[in-house]
Amino acid sequence: MIDPSIRLRRAVLLGDVVLVQRIIQTHPKLLRNPDFEDKANTSLHLAATHGHVKIATLLIAAGHEKNDISWNAEHETPLMLAAKQGHVEVGTLLIKAFPRCVLFVNKNGLDALALSCQNQASTPLVSTLLSLTDFPASPQSRDMQGNTPLHHASASGSLKALRILLAAGANPLAKNNHDWTPLAFSATVAGEVYFRNLVAEFERKKVEGAKAGEERERQRAAGLRMIESEHDPEQIGIAVSEDEVVPDDGLRIHRSPETRRRPTTPAFSSLGRHEWGSPT
After folding, report:
1. Enclosing H/E stretch for 9
2. Which stretches does UniProt call biased (Basic and acidic residues) (predicted)?
3. What is the pLDDT of residues 170-228, one digit of tens each?
4. Which residues pair with 135 in a beta bridge?
5. Closest to 59 (Cα-Cα) out of 38, 90, 85, 89
6. Is the dihedral of CA 177, 182, 186, 192 positive or negative?
7. Which end of the chain has fewer beta carbons closer than 10 Å to its terminal beta carbon, N or C?
8. Domain coordinates in residue numbering, the chain
């Protein structure tokens, strides 16, 4: 009779959801079932490597990662293997289920973002990893060789990943431990030309954005000066004399020199006007 652990492993590799479910129900302790002859890969590692979404969903629901994230002998998580093999659907499932594992690194210092950049099929995972709210991947991360995600994307010829990383703030001039920039890792001449144009485009947009920001700041400062001038008459050349009468509605009444010389009579004071030539 075949050992249940071997049967479970074979069922996962074949993508047999019904058989996997039956075995883990009968032998719940075999849920993780690490294979010590294969880097201690667990059931979820195998499902992620082969892109079996339904089996991965079943294993997660059964509590495969209930206590901790699975690691194999290379310190690789199931998410890393999914990213390495280009299985976007499984990778997205694992990111949503266990976002904290996004920042984990393997023995070579590679995280899920770097591994996604190494495979063009995993490019959709790049934007997902960078846009997380709680545990976003860093476009500035480095592996043991000092390579950034841009280095890996350039080496693999993943042009879309290059654009996504630059938009996220990756440094195109970053050097690894051997003093190589991402541009030097370009897989093809066409890729190198595209990368150069891409960097030039982002630098141009950065300069234009800075100029637009300065212009907005100047306009804002000018607007403040105009508001201050409206509240301070002396700033716009208006001399306020003691003869000005300011009613409650805020409108100033300027008296002419002739009006100032007119005598004030009881009639003028009470009626607010004076009929010249009439008896006083």
Report:
1. helix 4-14
2. 249-261
3. 999 999 999 999 999 998 999 899 999 998 988 888 787 777 777 788 887 777 666 66
4. none
5. 90
6. negative
7. N
8. 1-98
